[in-house]
Fold this protein.
Amino acid sequence: MSILYNKFEARIRLSAIRSNYRLLKTFGSRVIGVIKADAYGHGLFETAEALSKEGCDTFAIGSVEEGVALRQHLSNAGIGARILSLLGPIDPEDYAPLWQHDIIPFIGSFRQLEAVAGQAARLGKALPISVKFDTGMARLGFVESDLPRLLERLREAPLVRPAMASSHLATADDPEAVGCVLEQAKRFETMVAALRQAGYDVEANLANTAGILAHQQLHHQSQRGGIALYGANPFAGTAWEHLGKGLQQAMEVRTKIVSVHPLKRGETISYGATYTASRDMKVAIVAAGYADAYSRGLSGQGAQMLIGGRRVQQVGRVCMQLCAADVTDAPDARPGDWAWLLGGTGPLAISADELASWWGTISYEVFCLLGMNRRVYI
Ligand SMILES: *Cc1c(COP(=O)(O)O)cnc(C)c1O
């Protein structure tokens, strides 16, 4: 829920998300829709409903709380689906909702395993889990040397039912790092084989978007696709850029021009007077600033906007709710007109990767942050 009273519109094209899902499905096994963090800023409920219409029957969210919200929404909408919590339970109060709301948690530590085992025994009710393995990311999950104790603890807790096995790739978006990907894949196969040998018929999933697009051999029984659903290509700017062909960016962001005025040669603009006009020019003051998640880090980085169908450059410091753009070459720009910060119409539309490069970040963060503004579904 947005608490920003601004002129921003994060416009979300659900048809693009649906089309991207259809595209991902052509790459192999079942695609789990990764819609954590409010669907990367695109809206948890709207995105889940759109994906469900394309046959997506499994959603990966972050916290258990996010899973509860999704379950309640889907139930009200009459939609059944599996919900996986990628973070799994963190606090004691995160355990009961797993049973109440039918959420499959990633379980990646003995601490979590003991807690679900205890709760299952108290309730006398089974819980399907995904066993999370750490195969090289060194973030969350059981490592290979945990296997004997893990299998022993699982044997002792028959109500905890490993239904899935998962691990996450650290370098799949880097064509130069295939060696690391294959090493992770090998470790994953070993650990999945150990689970299966112990009698657990797990659905294995390892691939993220980059893995889905680039590595046929990582597909297993299911795959967790995130960023591609929203139309950004994890291989943008790499030798494998072509693998993301056909993805459609689902988010575009626009705001209003507040004022247009001249800036004479030699005059400076905005806080710190960091930008000096090198010629007589015209500037638009745009209702976008770091309070709207249009980062101050964009100041002076050559960031562009689309105004009146033309690319124009942001100049001077980005303020809290305002920033400036050089509109000398966009003579029709008027107060009240739209300025596009992301997307826009025609071949000059601004891609998430372009904006990310000016910002010094990645498309994921651009979507998550700008998506916190008021959203309009188009
Ligand atoms: C976010 C996430 C994904 C999706 O990654 P993309 O690169 O967006 O496809 C998959 N698995 C896990 C565990 C994640 O946290």
The chain has two domains: 13-244, 251-377.
